[in-house]
Amino acid sequence: MFDALSTRLQGIASRLRGQARLTEADLDAALHEVRMALLEADVHFRVVKLFTAKVRERAIGQDVLDGVNPGAQVVKLVHDELVEILGGERHVLDLGPPSPAVILLIGLQGSGKSTTAAKMAVRLRRDGHRPILVAADVYRPAAVEQLVRLGEQAQVEVVTAPAGTPPVEIAERGVAAAREQGADVVVVDTAGRQHVDTAMMGELEALQKLIQPRESLLVLDAMTGQDAVRTAETFHGSLGLSGLILTKMDGDARGGAALSIRTVTGLPIDFIGTGERVDALEVFHPDRLAQRILGMGDIVGLVERAQEHVDREEAERAAQRLMESRFTLEDFKSQLQQVKKMGPIGELLKMVPGAGNLAGAAQAAVDDGEMRRVEAIIDSMTPGERREPQLIKGSRRRRIAAGSGTTVADVNRLLRQFEEMQKLMRQFGGAGQGTGRMPRLPGR
Amino acid sequence: MERMPGRGSGLGARLRAVFGGGRAGTVEWDEAEEALMGADLGPQLTLEVIAAAQARATRDQALPTDALAAELRSRLAAAPDAPFELGPAPSVILLVGVNGTGKTTTAAKLASRLQREGRSVILAAADTFRPGAVEQLRLWGDRLGIPVVAQRPGADPAAVAFDAVAAADARGADAVIVDTAGRLQTSQDLMAELAKIRRVIERQHPDQPRHVLLVLDATIGQNGLSQAETFLSDAGVTGIVLAKLDGTAKGGVALAVHGRYRIPIVFTGIGEEIGDLAPFDADAYVDWLLAP
After folding, report:
1. Which of A145, A194, A224 is facing B246, going by the closest CB pair?
2. What is the pLDDT along chain B (292 residues), one digit of tens a residue?
3. Domain ranges of chain A
4. A353 touches chain B (CB under 8 A)
5. CA distance B188 to chain A (A)
6. ipTM of the complex
7. A292 in contact with B at a CB cutoff of 8 Å?
8. What is the 3-class SS of chain B, one letter each residue?
9. What is the DSSP string of A398-436?
10. Of B57, B7, B3, which Cα lies nearest the Cα of B32?
11. What is the distance in angstroms between the Cα of B42 and the nearest Cα belonging to chain A?
């Protein structure tokens, strides 16, 4: 729906070609497009103004680099400037002694605090901490139940209190429970509130004063619009926040609100939420958000996901079998499952630059439904058939089609594809790839 | 009955400050443009509205703020404003939207509203995914004395909707409000699940669901357009509920959605109390938006 900035700038770029310098008029035209792109990405209009002024200052009189499209050069300037603002020194959560360290999660209703609390716990546990969760949202019906259930998924204890217990008291109980059990981090999930609600803001201030959290993190929906600035300023003004977590980044929101908040409050962006599962919390990368704000896709994120979810040994074993022409449909299925672990294909495609707007047809060809069909077909084969697909003739094809709820044509197609793949791999293997292995994934 | 939040939007005050000196030149209109951007109308709609209002002000010799108000009103009037009505019993109302917009709360508010109008309502807890969602709706049902049809967490949401509609048929209830799980519009699997819920209801009653309401969070920005596009195509959205207007956000993206996809805005969420769901009134909204 939104044109990527690079596309928008192409028209200007063609005019600029052949010029030695970016003239002011050209630059203004380019910056107009930058402005529109940032506003579409929900960057606050004042921040947009500041930002374009800064880029203009940097760009003026800059030589057009040889062999570089001037439009791309402006995109790079914008990108670098974005990265610089979004990045800065890395904020490491202060979780050291004295134990326990308290982390307070704060935000508007529906921003994703409870889910984020569970995700933080999973992350902390993975990093060798012993976290516990505190359900201090006593207002929203069933909020406590929600956190308890999330705690089960995260395998972390959740401290609760009977209905009507003041949040301050619940938090105190949480800290006491942590001391008793030797937990070193307490993540407190607070009730969502409007920043204009003075009574609710007062409650948070009291809570903060009493439990002295090490970190007070604002949980913000990545889709937030222009009001993000006011929200963050008000929360930061009365509570002195220490960081920001951007949620729902698995959607297609461009996340410009983060740039606004970073510019206006200087708060570091610590994590991003990237899915509904409790392990979907990732460390923030300024370059990726910059690319996203500019509509450039997230190729780095794709590579990282591959690293996280693909079992390297398994991949190498399969590669070995491939080279030795022992790759069976069984191996093929296990490869499919690894890709599936990375998330829905549609979601993955969105991370590929340029594929974000891929036509539905192209997506359908590789969608999860197709993968499920292929898996069902393979599952309906006998182990012998999986090892030796050439066994599969007419009646076996009909049986497999019936067993997998597909058609004989589907089965034929899969077998043909597999055969072609084997052929290709044999050639590849025969070409004598020194090690006989697939290229290694870059190390983590 | 209250139609808009008590507190003004602040936008009108800003515009009056801009044009207060009696001048309406490029500088002033540029500032007005920024003010509309700040209300989340988005760059495209803002530029259109400003250009049209400027032309209006010149043509009608009107004050800039009056021209802006007239322009916004005429745009909201351009799409058919269908009043929210129940049809032959049972009317099925499906609530859809991304995560955290306030679907469950809206379901409860809408149920309470219909109940106050003397209608018999059944709530369907078809958000079987989010932990605590079923309990949340059950608690609301208990408070309001409205039956809640639910299954165990993780159950097929279409089956819950089916049960609820069957229960409404059996009891002769006027309306079934189906609360669904929040889902990002980019998740094809989950959007397909929603389409299935819809199909199952259609199979029970070919003319249902009567209403498919997209709950939009007023604090969000231009992603609302992407949400509306996908939920419209996959779930057949018939109207918008603009939730959380009681903060400082103005919900301008709803205007952009309304303009681009011609989806009427039917309700606004104007507070945290159960009664804080008001029928959308274009004039009241524009008045609130531009009030001094």
Report:
1. A194
2. 567 887 778 898 899 999 988 888 999 999 999 999 999 999 999 999 999 999 999 999 999 999 999 999 999 886 656 678 999 989 999 999 999 999 999 999 999 999 999 999 999 999 999 999 999 999 999 999 999 999 988 899 999 999 999 999 999 999 999 999 999 999 989 999 999 999 999 999 999 999 999 999 999 999 999 999 999 999 999 999 999 999 889 999 999 999 999 999 999 999 989 999 999 988 899 999 988 7
3. 5-86, 101-296, 305-430
4. no
5. 7
6. 0.93
7. no
8. CCCCCCCCCCHHHHHHHHHCCCCCCHHHHHHHHHHHHHCCCCHHHHHHHHHHHHHHHHHHCCCHHHHHHHHHHHHHHHCCCCCCCCCCCCEEEEEECCCCCCHHHHHHHHHHHHHHCCCCEEEEEECCCCCCHHHHHHHHHHHHCCCEECCCCCCCHHHHHHHHHHHHHHHCCCEEEEEECCCCCCCHHHHHHHHHHHHHHHHHCCCCCCEEEEEEECCECCHHHHHHHHHHHHHCCCEEEEECCCCCCCCHHHHHHHHHHCCCEEEEECCCCCCCEEECCHHHHHHHHHCC
9. HHHHHHHT--HHHHHHHHHHHHHHHHHHHHHHHT--TT-
10. B57
11. 6
Looking at the domain A305-430, which fold is it? 434 Repressor (Amino-terminal Domain) (1.10.260)
Nearest one of B189, B154, B194, B192 to B178, comparing CA atoms: B194
3-state secondary structure of A272: strand
Task: Determine the 3-state secondary structure of A4 from DSSP.
Answer: coil
Tokens of A32: 């107009």
Beta bridge partners of B122: B176
In 3D space, the residue among A207, A83, A87, A184 whose CA is nearest the CA of residue A132 turns out to be A184
Rounded Cα distance between A138 and A397, Å, is 59
| pTM for this model (two decimals) | 0.79
Determine whether B289 is exposed, middle or buried from the number of CB atoms within 10 Å of its CB (0-12, 13-18, 19+): buried
* Token reading at B2: 């209250």
Q: Which residue of A has its CA nearest to B140?
A: A141
Inter-chain CB proximity A142 and B34 less than 8 Å: no
Per-residue CA distances from A130 to A181, A270, A370 (Å) = 9, 20, 41
Give the tokens for residue A352: 């590929």
β-bridge partners, A282: A272
- Three-state DSSP at A161 gives coil
Q: HSE of A237 in the Cβ direction (CA atoms, 13 Å)?
A: 11
> Tokens 């439990």 — which residue?
A211
Residues 6+ apart with CB under 8 A from B168: B89, B90, B92, B122, B175, B176
* CA–CA distances in Å: residue A68 to residues A4, A72, A73: 19, 7, 7
Among B190, B168, B79, CA closest to B122: B168
Q: Which fold has domain A5-86?
A: Four Helix Bundle (Hemerythrin (Met), subunit A) (1.20.120)
Cβ pair B34:A45 closer than 8 A? yes
Which residues 6+ apart lie within 8 Å of A410 measured at CB? A373, A377, A401, A404
CB pairs under 8 A between A and B: 156
Which chain A residues contact residue B40 at CB under 8 A?
Answer: 42, 225-227
Residues 100-139 of A with CB under 8 A from B: 108-112
Q: Which CB contacts under 8 angstroms, 24+ apart, belong to B42-50?
A: B42/A39, B42/A40, B42/B221, B42/B222, B42/B225, B42/B252, B42/B253, B42/B256, B43/A36, B43/A39, B43/A40, B44/B256, B45/B252, B45/B255, B45/B256, B45/B259, B49/B75
Joined tokens for residue B46: 């803002």
CB-facing half-sphere around the CA of B211: CA atoms within 13 A: 29
Judge: domain A101-296, CATH 1.10.645.10. no
Residue A248 contacts B, CB cutoff 8 Å: yes
Give CA–CA dist B193/A276, Å, rounded. 16
